[in-house]
Amino acid sequence: MTSTSASTAAASDRGADPVVPRRKDGPRSKRAVILQAAVDSFGRDGFEQTKWASIADQVGIGQTALYHYFESKVHCLLTIMSAELERSLEQFQEAVADQPDDLARLRAAVGSAYDLTDRETLSARILLAHMDLLTTARASEREEAERQRARVLVRAIEDEWSRLVEQGMTSGAFVARDARQTGLALLALIVSVWRWYRPGGRQSLDDIADFITGACVRLVGPDPHQE
Q1: Per-residue pLDDT tens listing for the chain (227 residues)
Q2: SS3 29
Q3: Please, what sign has the CA dihedral across residues 205, 122, 82, 155?
Q4: Are 39 and 80 in contact (CB under 8 A)?
Q5: Which pTM was predicted?
């Protein structure tokens, strides 16, 4: 089963809406190039500061052609967010698939969260900065469809982390606590890095991955105050 079909099946089992696969772009489509330019601009200059027309200029198309792919700057932003969530989910599933035990799965899952290119890092920062956009319905049909897609992916990622923790607790590798709460705490710790990390900074993603992995391992272990 592919990672996309696995996430679809898992969502169906939980009663959530399945993640609908995207239609493949044609060979002449500018959609991927537009998204890359938008990620670079939103990540470098900020979403509010980026002029929608400037994206068209970077890609070398007219602004009217831009609306063929995205009906608004917000629609493009929501698409970037759902694409980043989908990448994160698939990378998590691939990382944990063949690990020998629960602790190895945890370490691999955390490591996968930081195994990113510079542009993927920008996408992760954009996602975290605009998560509030997923809480309110959009009037536009296309924007709302992308928002709903992102919400389904958020739930799928949360469920994967909760399931990883629950399996570790069942096997005795992790201390028995509330699995959902622990899974969400791990996820919050991991994504908090994108509030301050900048590519090319003092710390590398490898250094950060080592530090956060250690923190996550300690989080699923015994409470030192109760020993």
Answers
A1: 333 433 443 444 444 455 445 555 554 678 999 999 999 999 999 999 999 999 999 999 988 889 999 999 999 999 999 999 999 999 999 999 999 999 999 999 999 999 999 999 999 999 999 999 999 999 999 999 999 999 999 999 999 999 999 999 999 999 999 999 999 999 999 999 999 998 888 889 999 999 999 999 999 997 655 54
A2: coil
A3: positive
A4: yes
A5: 0.86
